[in-house]
Amino acid sequence: TTLLLLNGPNLGILGRRQPEVYGTATLADIEAAVAARISDRGWKLVSVQRESEGELIHTIQDNYDSIGAIVNPGALMMYGWSLRDALANYPNPWIEVHLSNVWARESFRHESILSALARGVIVGLGALGYELAAQALLDLVPAPS
Ligand code: DQA
Question: Which processes are annotated in GO (biological process) (predicted)?
Answer without folding.
Answer: amino acid biosynthetic process; aromatic amino acid family biosynthetic process; chorismate biosynthetic process; quinate catabolic process
